[in-house]
Amino acid sequence: MPNYFYTAKSFEGESQKGVLDAKDERELAQSLKNQGLILIQCATQESKEKRTLSIALPFPRISLIEKILMIRNLGVMFSTGLPLVKSFDILSAQTKNKYLKKALTNIKDQINKGENLSDALSKFPDIFSELFVNMIKVGEESGTLDEIFQILSLQLTKEHDLRSKIKNAMIYPSIIVMVMIVVGIIIVTVVLPSLTVFFTSLNVNLPIYTKILLFVGGFLLKQWYLLIVLPISLALIFWLIIRTRQGKWMIDTFLLKAPLISPIIKKSNSAFLIRSLSSLITAGVPLIRSLEISSKIVGNHYFREAIMDAEKKIRKGEKLSSALKPYQNLFPFGVVEMVEVGEETGKTSAILKKLADFYEQEAVNAIEKLSILIEPILIIILGLAVGIFALSIIQPMYSSLKSVNQ
Known about the structure:
- With 406 residues, the protein is mainly α.
- 75% of the residues lie in helices and 6% in strands.
- It has helices at 25-34, 45-53, 64-79, 84-94, 98-112, 117-122, 130-142, 145-169, 171-202, 208-222, 226-243, 245-257, 262-283, 287-297, 301-315, 320-324, 335-345, 348-405; strands at 3-10, 15-21, 37-44.
- It has a three-stranded antiparallel sheet with strand order 2-1-3.
- α3 (64-79) packs antiparallel against α4 (84-94).
- Belongs to the GSP F family.
């Protein structure tokens, strides 16, 4: 009989996970029922392994803009007294994203059957993060859903603004790099083959750098498919590497030690982490639970380890500021000190919010400075490439004309 990994709930609403032998799902459900549990979800060991080995799409199905619009509209409808079932019915009719529409319809049906909003949302972890679900759960328990929707809307908006500003700052350097690549491909595949015929007819000794340039042009003209296959293969290999734990660790280590990139990584990760903590604490989530959630959603491995370690220390009675002190080299200057001030004044949430605003702007400023620095470097590289190419062509032509005159 196959092993089933199951998620079940007791009649009191408590969740339980485990593994059980059963002939099929019906027998599994009956066995759990005899134990006073209701089967929620199950998967065999074989299907779980297949799901683990399958390659997920690298792009999210739901954009951040769609989430922001959804939570804003939901907050407005809820504040006017519209029932949640009707609100989700309207949201599903409004959205154009098929995947989101299906999810919203499913959530509406679950709420209609008497399920809590947070439980219905938790069934779509690829759309609604653990931070999102836990804040909604606190709002349901405290009767402050209206405020929670506003906090979530602010959280997602700030996250979107930070990402947008970082992307916008890197647009110009990216365009320059793309133009350099396209021009290089055109020169190597179109211009150089014609020059090969010309130089052959001159019957002169070519400099070594001209020979290398002509060889590369001839090789790529015959093996043109490499210009398509090689970049795609390298990108796929890189993506597969960063999907592994060791690969992610290597990338995070490099980013934190790279001279120009390290300040940006520290400030952007700190801003995201502090913003998440601020939103969770403001919503009424206990500090330990807030740290646990934040550790799961922060991107960088080292920041995750720092927060998980801080959570363990706080469970033993330490303050957040003292728990973070061993990681002062990881966080930008002033973070630990300001957290300590917040704890002493009893305004941790407000201090964290101000810190998040500050470091979000600092991350954007650092990106803009890097972008300004990259531009002249790229222009110099482009100039050197043009100079080498021009020298490789002009010198043989000059040598041939000199031999003719003699």
